Task: inverse folding
């Protein structure tokens, strides 16, 4: 039974009413990522009374999250974000049904998870996931609400919803992934803590508008906002032909995709190694570990390594003594670029690897094993 008192203030709105609230109560929304964007999305959808919310995230709370990921506090460090979010959101509104998926969205689980929901909200922070979600939402015909942040600027758009102008997708906006390291994430470039709150709130707004069919949403449009000067703009998204042999058009084609390779996160001749492989490799005496972060970046590696910032790698590669090389950075982006530079300079006789997910991934796995 609909709780009229809880939702009284929005039911009273002209153009909203009980019928819009019933649509929210019946809706099933999947949120990919419970981080900076996901936290406000989840809180506002829960408060608004969306009936069924799914949460996908494999990460744990870290201290560096807390200035922007407002569902969590200091006591939550080390805990799974999905489990903490579930506890907090249930306390907010027990009338909402939650399902948590403490895993990363991949080609192996995407169809099973996404097919259960009416709307997908992309609160991820990496290009492989964005292209993966765009493709599978297009194939399954699921609306996709996109959000992204960079330092002081944010973007919001609604994809895969048809209106009088047709239908657009993330690939219409960004047909090709950027080169590795070209667009740093907040691990490398930083972010003002309130920015994901602003963008996530707008993503939640677009979800509510889409479900209840009120207002003029960002369908086939991209909104940008700079919170330093409050300059905003809304652009029409072009819809060129997406016909391309590298784009999947069926579930079978989708499940054969390698989005890491598609987005340049994997490169031929360069091995992506896991934290456990990294720990084993660093025990060998014939291996050089190259940290391509800036010298002041934290945390430091607790093992012997060479510090050569990426911008200085070409001029200082002669410091390398061994033919087994592992390149590391904070999140894995700069290390892949560094590995590519060394591959071009040193040639095929050198065995070059990079730490996938960077020191962030290394520290996360180390914590889980304690």
Result:
């Amino acid at each position: 039974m609909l709780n009229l008192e809880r939702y009284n203030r929005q039911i009273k709105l002209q153009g909203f009413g009980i019928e819009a609230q019933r649509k929210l109560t019946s809706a099933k929304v999947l949120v990919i990522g419970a981080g900076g964007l996901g936290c406000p999305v989840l809180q506002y959808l829960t408060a608004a009374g969306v009936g069924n919310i799914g949460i996908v995230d494999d990460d744990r709370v870290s201290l560096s999250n807390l200035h922007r990921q407002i569902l969590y506090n200091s006591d939550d460090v080390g805990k799974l974000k999905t489990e903490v979010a579930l506890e907090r959101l249930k306390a907010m509104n027990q009338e909402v049904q939650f399902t948590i998926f403490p895993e990363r969205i991949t080609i192996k689980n995407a169809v099973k998870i996404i097919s259960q929901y009416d709307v997908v909200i992309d609160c991820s922070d990496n290009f492989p996931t964005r292209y993966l979600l765009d493709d599978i939402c297009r194939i399954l015909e699921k609306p996709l609400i996109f959000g992204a942040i960079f330092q002081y600027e944010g973007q919001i758009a609604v994809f895969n919803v048809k209106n009088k102008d047709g239908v657009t997708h993330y690939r219409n906006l960004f047909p090709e992934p950027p080169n590795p390291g070209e667009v740093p994430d907040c691990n490398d470039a930083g972010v003002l803590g309130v920015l994901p709150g602003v963008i996530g709130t707008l993503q939640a707004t677009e979800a509510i508008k889409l479900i209840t069919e009120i207002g003029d949403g960002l369908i086939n449009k991209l909104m940008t906002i700079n919170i330093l000067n409050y300059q905003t703009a809304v652009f029409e998204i072009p819809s060129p032909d997406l016909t391309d042999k590298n784009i999947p058009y069926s579930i079978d084609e989708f499940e054969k995709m390698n989005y890491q390779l598609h987005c340049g996160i994997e490169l031929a001749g360069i091995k992506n190694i896991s934290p456990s492989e990294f720990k084993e490799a660093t025990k060998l005496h014939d291996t050089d570990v190259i940290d391509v972060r800036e010298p002041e970046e934290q945390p430091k590696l607790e093992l012997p390594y060479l510090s050569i910032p990426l911008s200085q790698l070409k001029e200082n590669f002669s410091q390398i003594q061994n033919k087994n090389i592992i390149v590391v950075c904070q999140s894995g982006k700069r290390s892949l670029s560094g590995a590519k530079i060394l591959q071009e300079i040193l040639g095929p006789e050198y065995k070059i690897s990079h730490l996938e997910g960077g020191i962030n991934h290394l520290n996360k796995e180390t914590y889980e094993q304690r």
Q: What stands out?
A: The two ends are 46 Å apart (CA to CA). The mean pLDDT is 89. DSSP finds 15 helices and 13 strands in the chain.
